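Why predict the complex rather than its parts? Because the way molecules touch one another can change local conformation, and only a joint prediction can capture that. The input here totals 666 residues.
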Amino acid sequence: MIAILTSLILTIVALLMASLSIGDVPLSWRDITAALLHTGYAPQTETIVLDLRLPRALLALLVGMGLGAAGALVQTVMRNPLAEPGILGINAGAALFVTVLIVAFPAVSIAFLPWAGFAGASATAALVYALSWRQGTSSLRVILIGIGVGSVVGAGTTVLMAFGDIRYVQRAMIWLAGSVHDGDWHRVRTLLLWIAPPLALACMFWRELDLIRLGDQTARALGQRVEHARGMAIVLCTLIAGAVVAFAGLIGFVGLVAPHIARFIAGPGHSRLLPVAALTGGVLVMAADLLGRTIVAPAQLPAGLVAALIGAPFFGWLLWRRRHVPA
Amino acid sequence: MIGGCVRCGDSAKVLLLMALVCLLVLAAIVSITQGAVQMPLRQVVGAIIDFDGSRDHLVIMTVRMPRVLAGLLAGAALGVAGAIMQALTGNPLASPDLLGINAGAAFAVVVALTFMHATSGAAYVWYAFSGAAAAAVLVHAFGSAGISGAVPLKLMLAGVALTAFLTSLTTAILIWNQGTLDTVRLWTAGSLSGRSMPQVAAIAPYILSGLAAALIMRRQFMTLSLGRETARSIGQSPLLWHGIAIVIVTLLAGGAVALAGPIGFVGLVVPHIVRFGIGVDYRWIIPFSALGGALLLVLADTAGRTLLAQQSFPVGVTMALIGGPFFIWLARRSAGGRS
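Output of the joint prediction:
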């Protein structure tokens, strides 16, 4: 376990250094250390490192960690390998609110977009949970209601995308593709404060998660209060994924695939799975953002797209390597 | 069907099936008569049996008829394809999309429009169909490699990965290319408008043969839905039947996406609705899903055309707006008690 965590953290540090040095103005190791130590020697380099590249890389790391952990939570609670935070309607809700704001009220300041995204995400998740409550919930019912609510909300977005002004539609599409290009310290601080408590709670919760994975009846027989645990996990997942979506748009694939990769590496126990999934997600999004802003420079590809473009082949390779392992 | 017929005998289910067929014929007739211009039933019958080339007959035969036929075919195909996918994987989230079919079709159409300067109308049908088929073949090849063979989990994960990859490529192209985005965005919402009779006739054989195969083999799909171990222990070859199921789903869903664009809702939701109504026996789920899917798609298209008076309103949207709340209500009422 220590070896796994160390290698993941080393990968993250390496990616961080790469993100700091690669860009329109390539910087050497010496420039970066000087800037990080605040020597005041070269103010321009300091601006590039401290105000542009570092916050952006850190935002990517936080976004990825949130997605990975939220994905692991929701796959456990739904007991479904295809589940991802989007199944609670989080992505659909955020997408609808943000598209309404961009397409129907183009005059409104973009500063409201994160709030609209978070409001949409949590409202939809709350609606899914409330509608699936009938003297308790069940995983199957949450999944089915999530499909229903997601499709209705998604239809609203589709109408706007199909009939709105094409310029605004394209702007909305770029936001929906998921990106961390506007990372600054304010965003990094806010997102950190927002997702650190639920992440810590989720990790402290590992015993409950190990139990609920076994199925409602077994967990209940072993003394778990299943509804409490499920509700708690759904709330944590909504908080984390909603905040991430609010700050970075829809980065879809990471929340699905990071927990699977983590399960290949660390096994199904949650004391190990959750941190490994979070770090895996962080690596994926950081690498995606780095590639997205360098391969087609000076243009930029949104991190959400690149995450799927590099994550899917990597995941395919993992599947191929494990093709003889009995499932 | 809504009342629930989980414990009905076979004869009651046959009656229910007949009733659905009648309902479907009725819906199709209403759909042809309603529209920007009302057509009396006599005109419709006249156009079919004694076509005289008048304006009304032309409208019926070249505009309304292909649209209704495309809706019937695509709806039935998606319903059955979804049922087979859920039987194959045992996962309530499974749908034909999981084989990468919609993502492959959308990718092929966007590439054709952007790089090969295809003319829009004709491009959709054939590029969509071949993109869908290629994606499904790739997913199956990946998902069934190795000693353990076609395990549902491997298949699903391979499908999800390929879908994410193709969707991202499509989005990347569309972000850079406003012109293509403008041409393609109505199609991606799922739409039946502008289908011509030759297009429908070209795709119909694939869908009809897929439907026929699914109906003939419905007993095998029932066995498949019991899970790998059980299926093998009663003598079914999982490798063979996985392959056959994938081929049928590709024919059905590939044909549907070619006719109606990437519609996700029918394949995912109709099998669930049918299961609430008549239980878990796939020998019945498959025919009921065919009728239910066709009914839902035709009704949604008619509603979009008449209530909203919008010829090109995407049927994917109307269907989600009508079918979504209905589905939520059903799921609240009937899905899995407390546990």
